Amino acid sequence: MAIEVKVPTLGESVSEATIGEWLKQPGDRVKLDEPIASLETDKVAIEVPAPAAGVLGEHKVAVGETVEVGAVIATIEDAQQAGETTQVAEREQDQPASERPPAAAPASAPAPAEPDVDHTTTLSPAVRRAVLEHGVDPTQIKGTGKDGRLTKEDVLAAAKARKDAPAPSVSAPAPAPTPSPASAAAGERREERVKMTRLRQTIARRLKGAQEEAALLTTFNDCDMTAVIEAREAYKELFAKKHGIKLGFMSFFAKAACLALKDVPAVNARIEGDEIVYHDYVDISVAVSAPNGLVVPVVRNADAMSFAEIEQAIAEYGQKAKDGTLTMADMTGGTFTISNGGVFGSLMSTPIINPPQSAVLGLHRIEDRPVARGGQVVIRPMMYLALSYDHRLIDGREAVTALKIIKEAIEDPMRMLIDL
After folding, report:
1. Residue 279: which residues within 8 A CB-CB, separation 6 or more?
2. For a Cys staple, 150 with which of 70, 143, 261, 411, CB 3.0–4.6 Å?
3. Catalytic: which of 28, 33, 391, 412?
4. Among 55, 51, 58, which Cα is nearest to 86's?
5. Whole-angstrom Cα distance, residue 391 to residue 400?
């Protein structure tokens, strides 16, 4: 008797998903609760665990197909059948070689000109592109991702190691292989078509919808990071020793944003129909780069959290995003967003709000620039700040005031301690 593998509950208001990849193939042995497939929803990737131990039967749906909650996507042979299969294999091993059924001769095939990634269906599009670009063999790379899966960083590290490795010494040059038609032409231009993931489609739809519905406007300011850098440098070792987490810049900006949102509540509000919904709490969505795109997990009640609690929450979300284990609950809600493009080298940008929120703070790279201080020109570490907001709800005066409060709190962190 086969056991059905069904699509689990995906979260509130989510009724369908797309088969992202099969982690197990028909005939593979699986353990109870071992992930066998990855589903892509509008927000996160969700793994489907095996409902029983046994041998995976047939795939009922293919990668890329849309399935609803409760739909059967595969089957698993029950434990008894799996045990019989094991016993058969053991009996065959105990038989003398002369009594065993003849094994099929392996088919010979020419070595591929490029890494054969067609059969490695568990590679994500980003990893697949990296493999093709750098010409490495994915079967020879040890994955560091969840359940040993390859990440883009694994491929890049393998490519760098191969490049840095000394060329092997040989007594005589080996004959040059005959080039395959696919790689015969030097400088050949190629194209690759990769279907957008469900998450990427949702990101595209939501961002475009935000541009079309909201009256977006961005106000800018620059911020002297001297005080925060000095405070971080002075206390980072004690902070790490006491709390077990590094002291970063994000906790400073999160606390500064909480001050601003308390003083200018419209920036922390949202439009719902013909009503404005104000919040007496601050749930900050922190934009995090994940393998499948940008995600925004929520640091809840940030206004009531300490610097260490904020840093710990952000670090945990960053690791979960890298491992692909963010849940729907992690992504739900949020009253204000902080996006740090500075980690990628951005000097200035106009971030787009994350609906139904009404504002987003954009952080950028820190750069030494000449500024006037006390009638003299000095060099200071400066950062451009950008606050994009929905002008339907937030007036220009409110947006500028909120950004100015954030700037002043960063330039004088004592304000965050005495609530100024």
Report:
1. 265, 268, 269, 335
2. 143
3. 391
4. 55
5. 12
The whole-angstrom separation of Cα 287 and Cα 297 is 7
- CB neighbour burial string for 198-209, b if at least 16 within 10 angstroms, e if fewer: bbbebbeebeee
Question: What digits encode the pLDDT tens for the residues 103-140?
Answer: 444 444 444 444 444 434 456 656 666 776 677 777 77
Output phi, psi for 161, to 5 deg.
-65, -40
Q: Which CATH architecture has domain 2-92?
A: Beta Barrel (2.40)
Single out the catalytic residue among 323, 395, 412, 419.
Answer: 395
Domain spans of the chain, in order of start? 2-92, 216-418
Considering Cα of 299, then 300, then 303, then 306, what sign does the dihedral take?
A: negative
Catalytic residue list contains 279: no
Whether the model clears a pTM of 0.90, i.e. scores above it, the answer is: no
Q: Is the dihedral of CA 169, 172, 175, 176 positive or negative?
A: positive
N-to-C CA span, the chain: 68
User: Is residue 242 scored above 90 in pLDDT?
Assistant: yes
395 assigned to active site: yes
Q: 216-418: which CATH topology?
A: Chloramphenicol Acetyltransferase (3.30.559)
- H or E segment and range at residue 275: strand 275-277
- How is residue 400 written in tokens? 């500028």
pLDDT score of 288: 80
